[in-house]
Write a structure and sequence with these properties.
This protein is mainly beta. It folds into two domains: 3-38 and 92-277, outer membrane lipoprotein receptor (LolB), chain A (Clam), CATH 2.50.20; 298-395, Immunoglobulin-like (Sandwich), CATH 2.60.40. 12% of the residues lie in helices and 40% in strands. It has six helices and 23 strands. It has helices at 3-10, 100-110, 182-185, 188-197, 227-232, 290-296; strands spanning 48-49, 92-93, 96-97, 114-123, 131-136, 143-148, 151-156, 159-166, 169-176, 198-200, 204-208, 211-221, 236-246, 252-263, 266-277, 299-305, 308-315, 324-329, 332-338, 348-354, 357-361, 378-384, 387-392. The strands form four sheets. Strands 1, 4, 5, 6, 7, 8, 9, 10, 11, 12, 13, 14 and 15 form a 13-stranded antiparallel beta sheet that branches. It has a four-stranded antiparallel beta sheet with strand order 16-17-20-21, with no helix packed on it. It has a four-stranded antiparallel beta sheet with strand order 19-18-22-23, with helices on one face. It is globular. The chain starts with a helix and ends with a strand.
């Protein structure tokens, strides 16, 4: 199964996930659609089409210096300033927008010293939710805050702490990490899918909330073989609509989209939205629960034993019953399974694959037929809603 589609279908994977306190580096899975966005529409001022073919009215160069006294002075007719194709943001033209825009967007965001980004994504039948990223330090991410209804995360240099609300209780995570997935922070992968897949109109220039923007709309996909199909692992996309407002520097002021996806016999509707603001003004402060997270976060020590992944709880908070393990092997989704009981200090979990099925045991299995692990594999283990860790098979 395509990794991205799996993440989208499973819902609250990364945005509900914090991280366990680990001694090594850990890499989060690529972002996943998590919750539904209510479709948003921005009311804008009247638009003017920017066309590279427009020409100004030329004034004659041999006009007399003096006008006859018996005829009124005539003013030249005012005509629109022509717009050259180069004045569009990279990836845009009179024919719409291409996948190159996603790279321009990522580069533009990486050049900012700080910013705030809100995104909404998920299934239409889910609960409305808004996720807010506050980022300081451009693409190297010196500090960031991640907020949603039931999850908060704070990052400072290589420290990550998180707090999730689970069944009325706070669950904490803490670990150190040298790299942050900037493309996930700004949702550039899904932006790429949308601009590559949508059949967008010619950009028009308008003003929205005091910002000059280029507005594009789409009422369908441009082909049945696009990055948007790949992202959702879609057999068909019968309905797609989107509105995109882009500033001249290629940052997205507002993006709304709604996509109907057919996968086999399943039909699902997804929404996705992005807003950016507060460039150079965003600040990130340590939350008042930071020390709690560092002291209470569960310690999980992974090892590999006879093609089983063994997770040992060595201290910190109890992982509650119904915590869900999700696996990703070298980027491909590998299934999920739920705890049958809580896991506390001293407990071990055995996780393995049999064919395409993910298996879990709270005791060392006496009969199992695990698939062989590839030494080149990197296995991502997500313990939703509070933690993510990465296991490199070659290290065991």
């Amino acid at each position: 199964m395509n990794r991205r589609r799996a993440l989208a279908v499973l819902g609250s994977a990364i945005s509900l996930s914090g991280c366990l306190r680990l001694s090594g580096d850990s890499s989060s899975p690529t972002r996943s659609p998590t919750r539904t966005a209510t479709a948003r529409r921005t009311t804008s001022s009247p638009t003017r089409t920017r066309s590279p073919t427009d020409s100004p009215t030329e004034l004659p160069t041999d006009s007399p210096t003096e006008s006859p006294t018996d005829s009124p002075t005539e003013s030249p007719t005012e005509s629109p300033t022509p717009t050259a194709a180069e004045e569009y943001p990279i990836g845009m033209s009179a024919s719409g927008v291409s996948a190159l825009f996603a790279d321009a967007y990522e580069n533009a965001m990486a050049s900012k010293s700080s910013f705030t980004l809100e995104f909404l994504e998920g299934r239409v039948q889910g609960a409305d939710d808004t996720v807010t990223h506050e980022v300081v330090g451009d693409s190297k991410v010196h500090a960031s805050g991640f907020k949603r209804r039931d999850f908060d995360e704070y990052r400072l240099d290589n420290l990550v702490v998180s707090r999730a609300t689970h069944r009325g209780s706070n669950l904490f995570g803490a670990f150190r990490r040298d790299h942050f997935p900037f493309n996930w922070l700004i949702q550039s992968d899904l932006v790429h899918g949308i601009v590559d897949g949508g059949d967008f109109s010619e950009p028009t220039e308008t003003e929205v909330d005091g910002d000059t923007v280029f507005k594009l709309t789409s009422q369908g996909v441009k082909s049945e073989n696009s990055s948007l199909h790949d992202f959702y692992d879609a057999d068909r996309i019968p309905e797609f609509e989107a509105t995109l407002l882009v500033r001249p520097d290629a940052t997205i002021k507002d993006l709304d989209s709604r996509t109907t996806v057919i996968q086999g016999s399943d039909l699902t509707e997804f929404t996705f939205g992005v807003k950016t603001r507060a460039f150079g003004e965003t600040t990130v402060s340590a939350p008042d629960w930071k020390s709690q997270a560092q002291s209470k976060a569960p310690d999980i020590s992974p090892r590999i034993q006879d093609n089983h992944i063994v997770l040992s709880h060595t201290g910190g908070q109890t992982l509650p019953r119904q915590t869900r393990i999700r696996m990703f092997t070298s980027g491909e989704y590998g299934g999920s399974v739920e705890f049958k009981s809580s896991v506390t200090e001293g407990d071990n979990l055995w996780v393995w694959h049999e064919g395409s099925e993910l298996k879990l045991s709270h005791e060392e299995p006496t009969t199992s037929n695990p698939g062989e692990l590839n030494p080149a594999d990197r296995i991502g283990v997500e313990l939703s809603p509070i933690s993510v860790l990465t296991i490199e098979v070659k290290n065991f």
